[in-house]
Amino acid sequence: MAETVLRVEHVGMRFNLSKERVDSLKDYILKSITRQMKFDEFWALKDINFTLEKGERIGILGTNGAGKSTLLKVIAGVFKPTEGSVVHKGKIVPLLELGAGFDKEYTGRENIYLYGAVLGYSKEFIDSKFDEIVKFSGLKKFLDVPLKNYSSGMKSRLGFSIATIVEPEILILDEVLSVGDAKFRKKSEKKILSMMDKGVTVLFVSHSLEQVKRICTKAMILENGSIRSIGDIDTVSAEYEEMISGD
Ligand SMILES: Nc1ncnc2c1ncn2[C@@H]1O[C@H](COP(=O)(O)OP(=O)(O)OP(=O)(O)O)[C@@H](O)[C@H]1O
């Protein structure tokens, strides 16, 4: 019997967009205290409703600013939705901004523990997986170099290698299969595909429709923060192709 692992109900996300030009923190505090700051309310997500069954893989499509990353962040728990609720079963691993939990002053070795802690992994767990992380990242030679001397591709590789060390029930991927060089991209896609073989449920954002079609069983089109369509991959990707070719 199908098992629902994710339920998103009436989710809305409002941001306050500052209309003021603020040049410094002091300026911001002064303007806030004297109530000179004016904000525009902006709903990045409006009344989002859907469920996912175990093993389903959904591609989230939409043009720039449609709300794709915001939706993934709400599901990952990075943002608390202004309205509605997200209920999930099992561990979620979000691969959003890889390495957002890194500190550039620390070495690669230290950052493995730091980022691991940000992702909720214990020191003992990281100890047991340390060699595997380093091997996958291919960064052994740079382990004791501070992160500020890593290239952005190297940072992403390290982030990907740490984040994918566990086998989650729900995997959230935001443009992360385009990190690193071609060789690493192949390796990371292979790793994700092997996680999929084990029945992981996936939410996937990519600007490559080809990649979405290769990976996903379902798709959703977001438009101005609302769901325009949701359904099987072939129908929805065909609608999206038509939608973007009309621009
Ligand atoms: N922290 C924030 N504060 C204010 N507005 C935000 C914030 N994060 C996102 N937004 C706004 O919400 C809207 C949706 O942004 P989001 O990043 O979810 O879009 P997206 O579909 O992922 O776009 P892209 O394809 O360009 O990555 C945008 O208009 C963006 O400006």
Structure write-up:
The chain is α/β, with parallel strands linked by helices. It is 37% helix and 28% strand. The strands form two sheets. The chain has a six-stranded mixed β-sheet, sandwiched between helices. A three-stranded antiparallel β-sheet has the order 2-1-4, covered by helices on one side. Strand 8 and strand 9 form a beta hairpin. The longest helix is centred in the last third of the chain and has 16 residues. Bound molecules: adenosine-5'-triphosphate. Adenosine-5'-triphosphate binds next to strand 1 and helix 2.
CATH class division of the largest domain: Alpha Beta
Described by the principal axes of the CA atoms, the overall outline is globular
Helix content: 25-40%
Total helices: the number is 8
CATH superfamily of the largest domain: P-loop containing nucleotide triphosphate hydrolases
Number of domains: 2
Key features of this structure:
2 domains; 28% strand; single chain; three-stranded antiparallel beta sheet; 247 residues; Rossmann fold; six-stranded mixed beta sheet; 9 strands
Structure described in brief:
With 247 residues, the chain is α/β, with parallel strands linked by helices.
Topology of helices and strands:
Layout: E1 4-18, H1 25-33, E2 39-53, E3 57-61, H2 68-76, E4 83-88, E5 92-95, H3 108-118, H4 123-137, H5 152-163, E6 170-174, H6 182-197, E7 201-205, H7 209-215, E8 218-223, E9 226-232, H8 233-245
Parallel strand pairs: 3-7, 3-8, 5-6, 6-7
Antiparallel strand pairs: 1-2, 1-4, 8-9
Helix pairs in contact: 3-4, 3-5, 4-5
This protein binds adenosine-5'-triphosphate (ATP).
GO cellular component, one term: membrane
GO molecular function, one term: ATP hydrolysis activity
Keywords: ATP-binding, Nucleotide-binding, Transport
